[in-house]
Amino acid sequence: MLKKNIKLSHFVLIASLANFLLFHYPFFKFVFNNLDYKSFNGIIIIVNLVVLMLVLNAFLFYIAFFLSRFVGKFLLSLFFIISSIAVYFVYTYNVFIDITMIGNILDTDYEQSASFFSFGLVMYLIVFGILPVIFIYKVNIIKETIKKFLIKFSLTLVFLLSFIYVNSSNWLWIDDNSTQIGALAMPWSYVVNTSRHYIYKSQENEKEILLPDATITNTKKSIAVLVIGESARSQNFSLYGYKKDTNPFLSKIENLHSFDATACATYTTGGVKCILEHKSTSDLYEILPNYLNRNNVEVIWRTTNWGEPPVHIESYFNKEALKKDCVGEDCEYDEVLLKGLKEQILASKKDKILIVLHTSTSHGPAYNKKYPPSFEKFTPVCESVELGKCTEEELINAYDNTILYTDYLLASLIDDLKELKEYNSTMLFVSDHGESLGENNLYMHGIPKAFAPREQLEIPFIVWLSDDSKKLKPNETLSQNHVFHSVLNFLAIESPIYDENMNIFE
């Protein structure tokens, strides 16, 4: 039985040790997989990491509890709860809790969050989170005098600084791998990266930089439909040579072209930003729908997704708004994006129309919930959100069914556009990023681009053109950056920022 009364210094050491043992297996798994741990230098680095992690965490916990035992218990409890959830996702999906993943988490809506719920998650939360929290609140911490605090504070600080200085020659490997190990060190992975995320968010919320005014050069009725895919990777499209027929509809459509393309990022907000901006930049420039809306183009945005940039237009419809006037089973899926769209186009009084459809069809982990039962062509399918528990066949089948459903949606959209004879029309389907399906024991997406696998970066870029509207350049490999300038060209928009080299049309 643990004592109910315990000295502060002893308590923080126990807390630091518990944090180390419960939450850092992935951390040291990465270290051992990427370091020659049998060499003398490798051993020294591992010892350094262990000592630094134990002492530094204990030191910070010590300061927090001395200042306020109530605040200290609250923060430590919160850390254990969040860390238990974080380490579950690290174990289960082999992800890193870096700034990219934090952005994914904070941009995920309730429906998508609920899809991750599992028995395994509950067990992690109970064993690694709730049980330690019970101990934290039951124990009575004996507060130390200010004199003892200052002595221990000073000695520990001197030790840490001396330790870092003495071992400075061994920090090169740590520096080279700081992104990965920083994303696996609990609780600082999500504490630091959440802070970084909101710092960047505050910068993004600054007033966007307006682009120079544009001019519409003709009155020919034209429609450009941009379909932003979710987690669609090109290698599972039969249009790209995939062995399974996941594109039975699109493969029969004339004037349809597919191009190799690479995503700018492995997460939704980054990919969508790249698709909609005129160039890749960290600055907040006016995005395509806002720009065209300001320059007398009819802009319609329909979405079943989240993580979108600020869209300043009147005709913006989220999933809830679209479902309001929709009847039938298909309203629960991405087909709701097409309901009433043709009528909305015909009601427009403008010659130039941009439509953005932001789908969510291939978002995991519950791939089998993203399409109607009638599209479950490939079986058996993975029915668990803990993807590692499914066989390779089950996981890929479930994902392939989402691509099959995407194929149907795009073909249905094209059929609708074909009926609008008075318009020149084009459809551009570009995914926000790709998806890992167990390759190298990785799942879903969000791995930092610098070391992300090809499965998370290689995306489809599919273009359809109505008869006699436009022709395509002999493009080979495209990027998400081509969208902005190609739409300007198709809609006959003249602008000082237009880049002909980034236009796919002749």
Structure in a nutshell:
By secondary structure, the protein is α/β, with parallel strands linked by helices.
At CATH level 3, the topology of the largest domain is Alkaline Phosphatase, subunit A
CATH class category name of the largest domain: Alpha Beta
Q: Taking all residues together, what is the mean pLDDT?
A: 88
Number of DSSP helical runs? 17
Provide the number of structural domains. Answer: 2
Within CATH, the superfamily of the largest domain carries the name: Alkaline Phosphatase, subunit A
Low-confidence stretches: none
Number of strands: 14
Question: What proportion strand?
Answer: 5-15%
The residue fraction in helices comes out at 40-55%
Strand order of the largest sheet: 7-6-8-4-9-12-5-13
The structure class reads alpha/beta
Q: What is the 3D shape?
A: elongated
Radius of gyration: 26 Å
For the record, give the distance between the C-alpha atoms at the N and C termini, rounded to a whole number. 78 Å
Give the name of the CATH architecture of the largest domain: 3-Layer(aba) Sandwich
Description:
The chain is α/β, with parallel strands linked by helices. It has two domains: 5-203, no CATH class; 228-370 and 403-502, Alkaline Phosphatase, subunit A (3-Layer(aba) Sandwich). Helix content is 44%, strand content 13%. The protein has helices spanning 8-23, 25-33, 40-67, 69-93, 99-106, 110-114, 119-138, 146-166, 172-176, 178-182, 188-204, 268-276, 288-294, 319-324, 341-346, 392-418, 482-490, and strands at residues 5-7, 140-142, 215-216, 222-229, 256-262, 298-303, 315-317, 352-358, 424-431, 436-437, 443-444, 458-465, 477-479, 493-494. An eight-stranded mixed sheet has the order 7-6-8-4-9-12-5-13, with helices on both faces.
